[in-house]
Amino acid sequence: MDQCRRTLEQHNWNIEAAVQDRLNEQEGVPSVFNPPPSRPLQVNTADHRVYSYIVSRPQPRGLIGWSYYMIMLPFRLTYYTLLDIFRFALRWVRPDPRGRVTDPVGDVVSFIHSFEEKYGRSHPVFYQGTYSQALNDAKRELRYLLVYLHGEDHQDTDQFCRSTLCTEEVLTFLNTRMLFWACSTSRPEGYRVSQALRENTYPFLAMIMLKDRKMTVVGRLEGLIQSEDLLNQLTFIMEANQTYLMSERLEREERNQTQVLRAQQDEAYLESLRADQEKDRRKREEQEKVRQTVLAEERRRRTLEEEKELKSECLPPEPPADDPDSVKIVFKLPNDTRVERRFLFQESLTVIYDFLFSLKETPEKFQIVTNFPRRVLPCLPTEEQPNPPSLKEAGLSRSEVLFVQDLTED
């Protein structure tokens, strides 16, 4: 609420002006209460193709008219000469306060209020913002901008506002065909614009549009112009410059399409890049998984070899062939090779298992099976039999053939 109150106070409690300024801020146009460093207004006024239409004051008619004109001429010349001298001297004593623009929106809103108090609310829709903001909106929307400079002290101003500007046909024409910005030259914002447009007399109207990528004055209407003549002149200016506006619209549409196409191409490229990156990531993950598998297999193989060597070193010595307590055993391995070794009757079946485990040809997991009757020798300790039996307890004879069964796949 405090922010809303400050905003309304800055705009003299004019809701329309406050909303217009806030919308301009959202669209990227700087607020007039936080303006950028002052710089000349970027409007091209030096185009030699500018259409200029000046309405001269009617000449006196008849003897009485010329007589009145000649009588009043010295007084008029004296008045305006003294007025110019007074203004020139006043500038040396006190600088023109209009040279400092501190509240441009306030200047425009104040002019609109005074205009409505004097001429009523039936008038064209005034742009409630600064001149720079009106230029930006006209450029962004590719619309014509009609600028009206109100000379309060000029003798033709009152008649122009009542009989031309506020008529129904002019009001409808301006509201439907263009943006309309106006301000009094007695206010800093209006005075600044008048210095940029360099009007010769009042009432003054300037038609501005985007031309050759610059905001350009394409028509100037000066003097007391009637409503029908005003509409004809504005229509003529618009028709003469319609091709430029259409060209700008086509060029902007082409730029927009190019930007959309480029954005789509960029998105497609990024999507393809993301897909390639994802493919590379999966490939790296797969390679890393394979590498880890190979490393794990290599570690397992080395561990197995170390265990086989350890088992081989821990085996008891083979008894001689003439030892009466020895048992000769022939082992048939899964790869159809035969291995023969002698053991003692009193040795545990674990010794047989360790001997076979220490062989390179033996699988990692195996069991020892007798031929007939077929039975699996309990070579390893279990919960039911923590101490495996000896060869004699297992019922082996002095000469045996045992089979090694591979359990690795199981």
Automatic annotation (TrEMBL):
<dbReference type="InterPro" id="IPR006577">
    <property type="entry name" value="UAS"/>
</dbReference>
<dbReference type="GO" id="GO:0005783">
    <property type="term" value="C:endoplasmic reticulum"/>
</dbReference>
<dbReference type="InterPro" id="IPR049483">
    <property type="entry name" value="FAF1_2-like_UAS"/>
</dbReference>
<dbReference type="GO" id="GO:0036503">
    <property type="term" value="P:ERAD pathway"/>
</dbReference>
<dbReference type="InterPro" id="IPR029071">
    <property type="entry name" value="Ubiquitin-like_domsf"/>
</dbReference>
<keyword id="KW-0963">Cytoplasm</keyword>
<dbReference type="Pfam" id="PF22566">
    <property type="entry name" value="UBA_8"/>
</dbReference>
<dbReference type="InterPro" id="IPR036249">
    <property type="entry name" value="Thioredoxin-like_sf"/>
</dbReference>
<keyword id="KW-0256">Endoplasmic reticulum</keyword>
<feature type="domain" description="UBX">
    <location>
        <begin position="322"/>
        <end position="404"/>
    </location>
</feature>
<keyword id="KW-0551">Lipid droplet</keyword>
<dbReference type="GO" id="GO:0043130">
    <property type="term" value="F:ubiquitin binding"/>
</dbReference>
<dbReference type="InterPro" id="IPR050730">
    <property type="entry name" value="UBX_domain-protein"/>
</dbReference>
<dbReference type="Pfam" id="PF21021">
    <property type="entry name" value="FAF1"/>
</dbReference>
<dbReference type="InterPro" id="IPR054109">
    <property type="entry name" value="UBA_8"/>
</dbReference>
<feature type="coiled-coil region">
    <location>
        <begin position="247"/>
        <end position="307"/>
    </location>
</feature>
<protein>
    <recommendedName>
        <fullName>UBX domain-containing protein</fullName>
    </recommendedName>
</protein>
<dbReference type="InterPro" id="IPR001012">
    <property type="entry name" value="UBX_dom"/>
</dbReference>
<keyword id="KW-0175">Coiled coil</keyword>
<dbReference type="GO" id="GO:0005811">
    <property type="term" value="C:lipid droplet"/>
</dbReference>
<dbReference type="Pfam" id="PF00789">
    <property type="entry name" value="UBX"/>
</dbReference>
